[in-house]
Queue: 3 jobs
Job 1
Amino acid sequence: MKIKVIWIGKSRDPWVKDAIDEYAGRIRRYMPLELFDIRDEKGAEAEEMRRRECERLEKHIPAGATVILLDERGEQLDSPTFAAFVGKQRDYAVGELIFAIGGAYGFSEEFRRRGMLLALSKMTFTHQMVRPFLLEQIYRAFTILNKEPYHH
């Protein structure tokens, strides 16, 4: 299995970039990981921005991949349950497990039907902050699966 995380827009803040690099390196000890920045849309109405950004995201999702969309209306999982989900995907030989983080206006309604919706919290975070938070949870999942002491 390979994990791919795709998001709309560049990671601009140095602390975000540093956290992404740190957790990406940790995850790669367990599983191949690819990260993709997708160009964000500017100067259009929110719905049109969502549509165009989701078209760009779709190009990075191969047929047969398991797709998880980070969405505030998605299901909330605790870390052990999320780890079990990741482990199940790994054990059932899913080719690619893809996590997608939308832009400032999220995903189009059509694209939201593309995969499982996952919320990291009931709180709202910037789409920049969600990136390292998600990567940390993926790393935590692997430490749980490997019975390592990171998660207490």
Job 2
Amino acid sequence: MINNDVLRSIRYMLDLSEQKVIDIAGLASPAFVLGRDEVRAMLLKEDEPGYVPCSDEVLAHVLDGLIVHLRGREEGRPVRPVEKRVSNNVVLKKLRVAFELTDADMHRIFVDPGFPVTKPELSALFRQAGHRNFRPCGDQLLRNFLKGLTLRLRGAQA
């Protein structure tokens, strides 16, 4: 899925301002600086003038910052390095951690938008890439997860 779509979905689901997106990205690594104009350009649709693609680095910082924002920083543990490559599986894992979702929560989130996923399918998404039962997360699956999570967080507003 396009990183910009994920960023827009997260922003909408949590009703974040551009400044809050910048602040959250900075929580992952204080050395990472993101400008307001850069965020504004990444939130535009592809066909709008001024659109800038969201890099894996920016999305990784936002996702890691979201974990710190929602769960707090673990004291005594070193700051984890951000991923160089962000796949749909990584997005799914990071959102699961950030929102502290159980398997039952995950199933409900997929069922709500009308996209049920079985337990084996769900567990395959969270396996290591080299595992024989690993399953890559497709765009449609991630899109439905984001939609279900938005329904859960925003309720009837979505």
Job 3
Amino acid sequence: MAINDVEHCEVHDVHRDLVNRIGKEMPFEDELYDLAELFKVFGDSTRIKILFALFESEMCVCDIAETLNMTQSAISHQLKILKQSKLVGNRREGKSIIYYLADDHVRTIIAQGMSHISE
């Protein structure tokens, strides 16, 4: 896309007060990096499917794999990434490991995303 195809200001008139205020509020670079990394985790459709399934109910790996018609190994790999990103948690129940959404923030992100694409 050429620069002429993008809408832009006709004059270069920087609003210094606004720029300074936003600059003061801008998070540190490492925080922005961490946020970008978090959103990368949401960039995989398999992980989104797992999160959506866990949005509906806590589940073990066997049930997630069956629901998504995938292998337990593939699901376990994705769950490891989701757990490292603090998006899911787990607990042992007998011989099973039950996975769940880590907190209400994750539930809100999924709900807001679904709402956004439905508009």
